[in-house]
Amino acid sequence: MLSFNRPPFTGKETEYMAQAIANGKICGDGAFTKKCSAWLEENTGAKRALLTTSCTHALEMAALLCGIEPGDEVIMPSFTFVSTADAFVQRGAKVVFVDIRKDTMNLDEKLIERAITGKTKAIVPVHYAGVACEMDTINAIAKEYGLLVVEDAAQGMMATYKGRMLGTLGDYGCYSFHETKNYSMGEGGALLINTDTEDAEKAEIIREKGTDRSRFFRGQVDKYTWVDYGSSYLPSDMNAAYLYAQLEIADKINENRVSSWNRYRAGLLPLQEKGHIELPYIPAECVHNGHMFYIKAADLRERSALISFLREKGVYSVFHYIPLHTSPAGLRFGRFDGEDVNTTAESERLLRLPMFYGLKAEEVDTVISAVKEFYGE
After folding, report:
1. Which of 31, 69, 81, 87 gives 20 to 30 Å between its CA and that of 188?
2. Tell me: the pLDDT tens digits for 165-220?
3. Is residue 171 domain-shared with residue 293, that is, in the same domain?
């Protein structure tokens, strides 16, 4: 069976993890954590990058930095992972879901303004499949209404919008380093801070259980103490060591995935031209990162049949999110603004094909052949 995902592995991970153990500091903010943070700041252009235990926790930190309080409203797509909403619901916010664009599966920027009320505090664009939302429009709306922008760039590392890295276009950006992502530390994430120094210091406090411990280690205070709310969002330095091995060859990993993506597209393009399927759309101003390759079947019934057929052929494929606004928690904590034209219909058509670092050309060709066979080509 060709698996849907294989966690990235370069060969140096175990060596670096052994170094972390030898360093005698495997808890948070060790030598490899610092290397990863420095790499992220240098290569993304973020003012500050803080490794976290997950993208979920990066989003939770962003919600705290936004000052989200009970009664606030936050605008986001319903077609996203639950963590996007959870981070703000935990602070007492009402989630306002907006329909997505059919072409990119991203938040429809044209529908945001009408969803804004006097309670709206933030907009949370989700860069689905490493393809950027229309950020100039979103940022312009946010500026006009005095709103904050939190990018859920869980799938977006190394992807760009008009030459700028995803995660650096809003006030805060959140990356995921889960084992299914382009770069992994097993479980992990990062918070990118694109605002002022005061925000970065506040984020350090939140991340260090509400203490000024980071300032203490820099010699800025002679002792550390509890100064504000916070939690434990620091990953182990062993996890960071695993991640750093991949960051060192980030371009190579990116090129490998994009190459597989391009091979999928070239091989499946005839099926799109004949009207059997739809392939991903990449706007001209966007450069994607090969995070995923998906196709769209005619409808839910056809997709289900295709999934079964591929499994019979030894190919494991998956569909993605059940729209949050249809879930029990989504009904309780949120509301859908306007009409659900694309969110449910498009989510029921989308099917993700195997994609990972090291995917072989012949494996891609096997998948292409199986999909073509299903459609009688």
Report:
1. 69
2. 999 999 999 999 999 999 999 999 999 999 987 889 999 999 999 888 777 666 77
3. no
CA 115, CA 71: separation in Å to the nearest integer? 15
HSE at residue 219, side-chain half, CA atoms within 13 A, is 0
Instruction: For residue 32, give the CATH number of its domain.
Output: 3.40.640.10
Q: CA 259 to CA 240: how far, in whole Å?
A: 27
- The distance in angstroms from the start CA to the end CA of the chain is 22
In this structure, the answer to whether residues 149 and 105 fall within a common structural domain is yes
pLDDT digits (tens, 9 = 90+) for 229-254: 899 999 999 999 999 999 999 999 99
CB under 8 Å to 266, separation ≥6 — which residues?
Answer: none
Q: Which two tokens stand for residue 165?
A: 């890295």
Give domain status of residue 3, yes or no: no
Flag whether 8 is in a domain. Answer: no
Bridge-partner residues for 208, per DSSP? Answer: 232
Query: pTM of this prediction?
Result: 0.96
Q: Are residues 207 and 292 in the same domain?
A: no
Determine, yes or no, domain membership for 224. yes
How far apart (Å, rounded) are the C-alpha atoms in residues 204 and 277? Answer: 47
Strands of the sheet with 120-123, listed across from one edge: 48-52, 189-193, 172-176, 148-152, 120-123, 73-77, 94-98, 334-336
Q: Are 199 and 295 in a shared domain?
A: no
Question: 123 to each of 14, 70, 275, how far by Cα in Å?
Answer: 40, 16, 35
State both tokens at 138.
Answer: 């979103």
Of 198, 223, 247, the last residue of a domain is 247
Whether 293 contacts 265, CB under 8 Å = yes
Establish if 2 belongs to a structural domain.
no
Which single residue is written with the structure tokens 């060596």? 15
What per-residue string of b and e applies to 115-141 under the rule 16 or more CB within 10 Å gives b?
bbeeebbbbbbbbbbbbbbbbeebbeb
Tokens at 204, concatenated: 């350090």
Domain with 315 in it: 250-374
